[in-house]
Specification:
Number of strands: 10
Order of helices and strands: HEEEEEEHEEEE
Shape: globular
Bound molecules: 2-acetamido-2-deoxy-beta-D-glucopyranose
Strand order of the largest sheet: 4-1-7-8-9
Number of helices: 2
Oligomer: single chain
């Protein structure tokens, strides 16, 4: 188990170094999919920092209807960070949609493929997984909702 963790950390570091070394950046792309699995509309706001070849990436407020999906592709490098903000009626949640930790959980170990990363917006919070498996499966809850006062 410990060796696996060390090996995984090693793979991630190698992969990130690989991304920096490749200029112009034609590898190390992620595609993140966010699905609104609620029965209501939600508003989402995705903002990125240090996105490869883009810099800052403010995608503005978007409304997602029930079962609607939103996805975008982006190049990553060291320091790339995406914040996701979610409004559901009187509830609010913010979560790191992409950071070093998410890189690790969504990296599919083939650097030449686009890394796909899935998020589900559920009544009890925001879930992440490397594959679009059926729920609950191995989806991991990363954040619960806050009540807006
Ligand atoms: C985005 O939507 C939320 C929730 O409706 C709202 O509170 C916020 O002011 C909006 N932000 C912008 C920049 O429009
Ligand atoms: C995930 O899988 C479900 C069920 O097969 C499908 O309806 C949905 O479109 C998929 N979502 C994405 C983002 O691929």
């Amino acid at each position: 188990m410990k060796m696996n963790l060390i090996f995984h950390a090693f793979l991630i570091l190698t992969m990130l170094s690989f991304c920096i070394a490749s200029t112009p950046n034609t590898i190390c792309f992620f595609r993140t999919y966010i699905t609104n699995a609620l029965e209501d509309d939600i508003v989402i706001h995705i903002t990125g920092k240090k996105v490869s070849n883009i810099g800052d990436d403010d995608q503005g407020n978007r409304t997602l209807a029930s079962n609607e999906e939103y996805d975008w592709k982006y190049g990553v490098k060291i320091g790339t960070y995406y914040l996701g903000e979610f409004w559901w009626g009187s509830r609010y949640a913010s979560v790191s949609i992409y950071n070093y930790d998410i890189f690790g959980s969504c990296y599919n170990e083939n650097p030449f493929m686009v890394q796909r990363c899935y998020w589900l917006v559920k009544p009890d919070g925001l879930y992440n997984h490397v594959r679009n498996d059926s729920f609950p499966g191995h989806w991991t809850r990363k954040k619960t909702w806050d009540q807006i006062l």
